[in-house]
């Protein structure tokens, strides 16, 4: 099967306020899909809706041929979707080991994944007893990615993973995500405001504006156009 995630004509929002309107896109097997867009475009709202934190108003979300819209978050994650939120995603007062045990305790199958992840991320063994809140910003991001990967069988969803990271750390993150996607045979869905990480990683990029996906294409074509529009034309 080639399709991992399909979003069809999705509408969603908060209370009476519609944010996402008629959003459709596809994530294929082993593909990296980027969604870029400015502040408030609706990127986080889209991911929260896919993950079941928000109930869709209409439309369909299909993961590995199964409708997941309307399911609760725990069920959706247990089907094999990993999520790395923009902020947080770790419990800062617990140690690295305790953070990991919290996830493996809830999602039993994820314990098997841990062995593989220890090879890719030796830091989780080396720093097992360090309190998560005392890790550097980049290290905390790695831990939140590990927690997301524990449940990711086919798909890892990340909300602005490069936000707040220095350019040199961002480059390392991009290399690491490339390795992880290949080694673990995962598809990635990544939102970003800053297009540089997505330009490096994605097979296809969508541009989101005011709750719509307005353009899509290969990153090299699309991001060049977006940068030109923003810097030279001001819109
Ligand atoms: P950013 O890049 O700044 O994180 P975003 O593209 O992820 O932005 P969202 O966080 O999805 O954008 O926000 C889209 C719109 O939804 C914004 O107008 C925002 O104010 C609104 N919004 C977000 N969360 C809520 C909420 N809990 N209640 C009401 N409105 C919300």
Q: Could you explain the architecture of this structure?
A:
The chain has a single domain (3-233), classed as 3-Layer(aba) Sandwich (Rossmann fold), CATH 3.40.50.300. The chain contains 9 helices and 10 strands. The protein is α/β, with parallel strands linked by helices and 235 residues long. The longest helix is centred in the last third of the chain and has 17 residues, at 167-183. 40% of the residues lie in helices and 27% in strands. The radius of gyration is 17 Å and the shape is globular. The strands form 2 sheets. The chain has a 6-stranded mixed sheet. Strands 2-1-4-5 form a 4-stranded antiparallel sheet, covered by helices on one side. The mean pLDDT is 91. The chain has helices spanning 43-50, 73-78, 96-106, 110-120, 123-126, 137-151, 167-183, 196-201, 219-233, and strands at 3-14, 17-28, 32-36, 58-63, 66-67, 81-84, 155-159, 187-192, 204-209, 212-217. Adenosine-5'-triphosphate binds next to α1.
């Amino acid at each position: 099967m080639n399709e991992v995630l399909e979003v069809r004509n999705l509408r969603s929002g908060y209370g009476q306020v519609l944010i996402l309107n008629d959003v459709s896109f596809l994530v294929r097997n082993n593909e990296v899909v980027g969604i870029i867009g400015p502040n408030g475009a609706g990127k986080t709202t889209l991911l929260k809706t896919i993950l079941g934190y928000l109930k869709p108003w209409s439309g369909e979300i299909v993961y590995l041929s199964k409708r997941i819209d309307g399911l609760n978050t725990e069920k959706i994650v247990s089907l094999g979707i990993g999520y790395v939120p923009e902020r947080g995603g770790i419990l800062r007062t617990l140690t690295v080991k305790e953070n990991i045990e919290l996830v493996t305790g809830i999602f039993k199958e994820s314990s098997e994944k841990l062995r593989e992840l220890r090879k890719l991320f030796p830091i989780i063994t080396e720093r097992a007893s360090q309190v998560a809140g005392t890790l550097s910003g980049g290290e905390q991001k790695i831990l939140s990615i590990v927690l997301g990967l524990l449940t990711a069988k086919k798909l890892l969803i990340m909300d602005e993973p490069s936000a707040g990271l220095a350019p040199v750390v961002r480059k390392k993150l991009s290399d690491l995500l490339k390795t992880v996607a290949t080694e673990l045979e995962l598809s990635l869905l990544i939102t970003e405001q800053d297009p540089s990480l997505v330009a490096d990683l994605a097979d296809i990029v969508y541009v989101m504006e005011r709750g719509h996906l307005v353009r899509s294409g290969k990153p090299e074509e699309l991001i060049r156009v977006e940068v030109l529009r923003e810097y030279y034309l001001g819109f």
